[in-house]
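Quick sanity check, Tryptophan synthase beta chain:
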Amino acid sequence: MGKRKGYFGEYGGCFVPETLMPALEELEKAFYRAKIDKNFNEEFESLLKDYVGRPTPLYFAQRLTEHLGGAKIYLKREDLAHTGAHKINNALGQALLAKRLMKKQRIIAETGAGQHGVATATGAALVGLSCDIYMGTEDIRRQKLNVFRMNLLGANVISVDTGSKTLKDAINEALRDWTTNVRTTHYVLGTVFGPHPYPLLVRYFQSIIGREAKKQIIQKEGKLPHCLIACVGGGSNSIGLFSAFLKDNVKMIGVEAGGKGIQTGFHAARFAGGAKGIFQGCLSYVLEDEDGNILETHSVSAGLDYASVGPEHAYLRDTGRVIYTYATDEEALEAFELLSRLEGIIPALESAHALAEAIKIAPKMSKDSIIIVNLSGRGDKDVQEVARIKGISL
């Protein structure tokens, strides 16, 4: 965190309409109050244990390790958390904030792959709040199962048919809703992006991933890992994992969506093909044209199909603390199928991008090296889309 409030170096900030400032200030106060509120933290930790199922396992992928040769590969199994992804950690924390400390009657959210929408709908059902979820029509097509799950949980899914009909357009509509209904509504932003205090708030709720992984790898191997790998859309699962290791001598790699290749322009790799810009409430790296218009993005993974990235990632990239690379759709699909065949684990397409990087680097590392890959979500939601891509009718 930089010296200026809400900034990571030069990145971050709070660039929103004046009407939203009281809500963000209210959220900031509630967040800092929650961090020191014994009752809030006891309830949150109890729910993480008994409702979410934490700690999630740190699993040694023996067959994948033997297949690749080289470094030992461990998987942090966020896919085994309730609702099937790391998103539940943050959504549950924000639902509690909205109900207990801010006394809101309604929460809204945006979603790309649907996992954040499902997690938010789950949190709303648990604490008893009404819930509306904004989702692009292209993402609704790709993630029909998650749309049905949100409806089952009592949430109303509002389709967004503008722009690229994906995550950034859903965020725009959610922000418009929040501007109009700010007195009664809390916006559960799903990643470490947006105006202050969201990047800090979401990192706080997701930092449990890294704290658990650090404790677990020391118990299993007696030492820290040599490398951490996580996919980066907005960047919440990766910040959650990285945050506990930032002061340690551990290499960290964030993997963006290379789509059909950087040269084609059909990708969502902000660091490989973007520039600094202000978008949806903060300064970070963004995919835009020479006139500052936001470019359309592409990824086989709906959760990584986003034009910008969390401001802390931009800071960590500039300081060299974290290396950022990308995996193409083809590489992610190969990793998706390889892990399924070798380990009996079907990963989310988002997580398959991180696995693709492990597949590239593990064979070049010694056998006593250790890699932890954050398996941020399970792939049930992606099975139909992968079948469609392969030309298989289910």
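Posting the structure with no commentary besides this: The chain has a mean pLDDT of 95.
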